[in-house]
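Researcher: Here's my situation. A collaborator sent me these components and asked whether they could plausibly form a single complex. I don't have experimental data yet, so a predicted model of the whole assembly would be a useful starting point for our discussion.
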Amino acid sequence: MEPLKVVVSGPVGAGKSTLIRTLSETEIVDTDARASEAIGKELTTVAMDYGTLRLDGQLLYLFGTPGQERFDFMWDVLTEGALGMVLLVRGDRPQDFPQARRQLDYLLSQRPVPYVVGVTRQDQPPVWSPAEVALYLGQPSERVVGLNATEPRSAASPLVRLLELMLEADTP
Amino acid sequence: MAIFGNLNHMSLGDLLPLLSVQDGALEIFNLEQHPRVTLYFNGGLLHCLYVSGRPAEPLQARGIVSQLVAAKRGSFEFVPGARVRRCPQPLGWPLDQLLLTTVTVQDEIQGLERSLPHPDTIFAMTQDRAPSDQRLLDFWQRAGALLQQGASARELARRLGMPLEHARYYLLKLRQLELLAPVRARRALARKASVASRLLHSLKRHFFGDRQAWNH
């Protein structure tokens, strides 16, 4: 079976690397480098994160995009041909929402990729709920799920929702 | 009296009050973005703006004035009494208000930097209703045909001859008024439902066993 690709995108510090690390069955390949500007953390992804997940013989590649906008060419490269995309945003950092919306609008206007939005840090209130983030992003509430990226079941929930929505879309 | 100098030492914002009481033409050259810009003043109004020897229409003129206000490079010289040869769309902008409006837009763009859309996001009209604000209306009228089909800020800036940041700003403002929305790319390759179904069952079994997903 041909491997399938799922892209995890979102602003810096949204939890992309954490989500992939939590879901991946193999040691993740990361391209972290010391941040050259003040982005709220010491290390940041500069090319991509890469992990794998095997489901009944079907290999899934999990690719995390860099969060900084100067690497936006990587968003295009990584989303091409993807099975779907999970865009993550930290629910306790509303200052990142405009960037999340910009990424989402851009990617969806360039690629016909199925997607969901994941709102991280749901376990650490005060935090925006998925429904509130959906309102801000102008997305249907069913496309936005809350999660804790460090907990395997919770981290898998955006993928579950993504596949459910793909199934619904294909149902006549 | 001779008014000349360099924008590096004296900004257009400093010059405009001087020129509001004189008729003539301000020639600006050696600019980064344009070879030559000429502003014609008459009775305290910016009557017409020429760029590279051609009259600019209002939307383009607004963008150029904004660039001039922020320009750090460019030589200028005022020619008293010079009159414009041809001006198909006279601007008639009072200089005091022009500066205020331009600076406000520049300030607003800087303040909105985090919210401006990506230059390549494609937007399309969602309503025929025109905006009431004059600046937005200028843009709406010029960009209307392109936005009916769907266009990005980068394309609009190139086709309409305006600064990219201004195109992004106008798209944001029109979106906030719900007159525009980002376009979704059309689905080219539909994944088979069987793939999604197979993966979904497998994923649920892998992470949840028989239990429901965390968010369900």
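Model: Some features of this prediction you could bring to your collaborator: The longest helix of chain B spans residues 95-111. Chain B has a mean pLDDT of 86.
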